[in-house]
Amino acid sequence: MLKGQMSGSICSCTALPPSLQPKRMSCIYGFSSVPSFSTAASKPRTVIRCSLQGTVAEPKATSVAEPLLLNAVRGEDVERPPVWLMRQAGRYMKAVMNHFLSYQIICQKYPSFRERSENVDLVVEISLQPWNVFKPDGVILFSDILTPLSGMNIPFDIVKGKGPVIFNPLRTAADVDPVREFVPEESVPYVGEALTILRKEVDNKAAVLGFVGAPFTLASYVVEGGSSKHFSQIKRLAFSQPKVLHSLLQKFATSMAKYIQYQADAGAQAVQIFDSWATELSPVDFEEFSLPYIKQIVDTVKQTHPTLPLILYASGSGGLLERLALSGVDVVSLDWTVDMAEGRRRLGPDMAVQGNVDPGVLFGSKEFITNRINEVVRKAGNRKHILNLGHGIVVGSPEENVAHFFEVAKGIRY
Hints:
There is one protein chain. The chain is an alpha/beta fold. The protein has a domain at 89-135 and 137-333: TIM Barrel, CATH 3.20.20.210. The protein has helices spanning 68-73, 103-109, 113-117, 120-134, 173-176, 184-187, 189-202, 215-224, 232-240, 242-266, 283-289, 291-304, 321-325, 340-347, 366-380, 399-411, and strands at 26-32, 45-52, 55-56, 138-140, 156-159, 163-166, 207-213, 270-274, 310-313, 331-333, 352-357, 385-389, 412-413. The chain has a seven-stranded parallel β-sheet with strand order 4-7-8-9-10-11-12. Strands 1, 2, 3 and 13 form a four-stranded mixed β-sheet that branches. Strands 5-6 form a two-stranded antiparallel ribbon. α13 links the parallel β9 and β10. It is globular and about 55 Å long.
């Protein structure tokens, strides 16, 4: 909770381009007992109101039938930015809330990540943990981008302390030929079941989010054999046998489009595409080995689900922002190395943005966290912004600081 002496702090909006600048917006910090999603609803809580022309803005009318996150992405008037955090369900959660086990206790009982992420009951319970504690505006499925691999005839595991392990890395045409196109209904029915349950549990009070891996990132894992520092194997394949890599990328593109459609049909109201390793490519190589396949996915999904918001995230993407927007996605998620105001200018006012507080900020003081949240919100403006971190929550982040992040974020008023 903020100290009383912070009341009356003024927020400048000069970093925004004119099309995104509200007139004389100022954020006023104070205590209020206005009902809201609070981690401690019975206590006075911090409220941050952004006023126009010196008066506190009234909450703007929005469609009550749709979650706040969807309204924001579509450019509707919203009273505050929706907020959720990547990796909001995970190892940092130690507390036991009501009858729910903490994630750490679940890990002790079910040590295999694949068991936790491929069991309907566990997926639902873990996905709902942050919802039950923090009430974010987005509830993302607990899963992994590599989950489809088994269904594509690519054996793998996720080993504690080591990460993903691909048992037979794909490095030749003969390796790629046996890879099957993904049929999610057959291979991962638990994903669909979990999303359907989550949609019912959340009951439109937040958006249920699905996610997939982008083709180049998936290919990087299966060619490298797991995580990599230098990506020498995927680049060797790209630059010496590009036809082989393109064949693999096409299989992933077709499969991930089907996977997004499946998730949407099961209950996902928005889907995030993770292209975590695309930024290992130079811009010219991104245009050959990543962008066309993301665009193909987007085009395919939009044919059957034209209103489904698609979010694209690529870590370290400052050099590729304009190219990310060319994919046709609805939202570009910025990592923390990009200044939010600069990202807004480069992407233009019509592109929704997500992010982008440095995850490391959660190790700071509550006042520091508050200031960083407000800085991002000021620079993002009051339209088409989803507040998030610039990457996932780091293991060891104090849970009380995550709670403070949500409390401050949900107290913001434009």
